[in-house]
């Protein structure tokens, strides 16, 4: 009798376990995870443009480590800024001649308080300010898209979940 009872109990436990399991256990990629929405995340709104003086730096700092950890290359389009996040992209417009260049912030500075940005030699040359050394500029933070915005709707679900 005990043997029959244990078989019935085992069958009952097994059937309850099957009944509690979902019919289709494969995850639905469109369903998402808890606390996940199907809305695309928008980048942080850009700041107001800064207007002030820019200077440039070059040969003396060539191959020295920047605040981002990479070696400084005076011919790359990079810049030093006091507060913008490292890796940010900004558009710098020379207010004397209306030339513009897009640079990546990879260092901290400038040291003189009356300047807002230090450009690499390459960026300064594009703006035509290597002779004067200091020019009035406008600095605008560029709104860089995220990976999910670049790849379109098909991969948005994959990038939001954090797993490929």
Descriptive account of the structure:
With 164 residues, this protein is an alpha/beta fold. The chain has a domain of 92 residues: RlpA-like domain (Barwin-like endoglucanases, Beta Barrel), CATH 2.40.40. Strands 1-5-2-4-3-6 form a 6-stranded mixed beta barrel. A hairpin with a 5-residue loop joins strand 3 and strand 4. The longest helix has 19 residues. The protein starts with a helix and ends with a helix. The relative contact order is 0.20. The C terminus is likely disordered.
In short:
By secondary structure, this protein is α/β, with parallel strands linked by helices.
SSE arrangement:
Elements: H1 2-20, E1 50-57, E2 78-80, E3 89-94, E4 100-107, E5 115-120, H2 121-127, E6 134-141, H3 147-151, H4 156-161
Parallel strand pairs: 1-5, 2-4
Antiparallel strand pairs: 1-6, 2-5, 3-4, 3-6
Level-2 CATH architecture of the domain at 50-141:
Beta Barrel
Return residue spans where pLDDT drops below 50 for at least 5 consecutive residues: 27-44, 153-164
**How many DSSP helices?**
4
- Write down the overall mean pLDDT: 77
Helix content: 10-25%
**Whole-number radius of gyration?**
29 Å
Question: Briefly, what CATH class of the domain at 50-141?
Answer: Mainly Beta
Distance between the termini: 54 Å
Q: Major sheet, described briefly?
A: 6 strands, mixed, barrel
Number of strands: 6
CATH level-4 homologous superfamily of the domain at 50-141: RlpA-like domain
């Amino acid at each position: 009798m005990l043997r029959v009872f244990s078989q019935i109990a085992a069958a009952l436990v097994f059937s309850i376990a099957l009944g509690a399991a979902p019919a289709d256990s494969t995850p639905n990629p469109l369903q998402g995870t808890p606390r996940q929405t199907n809305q695309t995340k928008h980048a942080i709104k850009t700041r107001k443009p800064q207007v002030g003086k820019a200077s440039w730096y070059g040969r003396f700092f060539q191959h020295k480590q920047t605040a981002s950890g990479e070696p400084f290359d005076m011919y790359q389009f990079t810049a030093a800024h006091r507060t913008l996040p490292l890796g940010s992209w900004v558009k710098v417009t020379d207010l004397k001649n209306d030339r513009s260049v897009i640079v990546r912030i990879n260092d901290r500075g400038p040291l003189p308080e009356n300047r807002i940005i230090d450009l690499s030699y390459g960026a300064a040359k594009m703006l035509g300010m290597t002779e004067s050394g200091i020019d009035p500029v406008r600095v605008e933070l560029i709104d860089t898209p995220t990976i999910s915005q670049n790849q379109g709707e098909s991969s948005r679900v994959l990038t939001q979940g954090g797993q490929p």
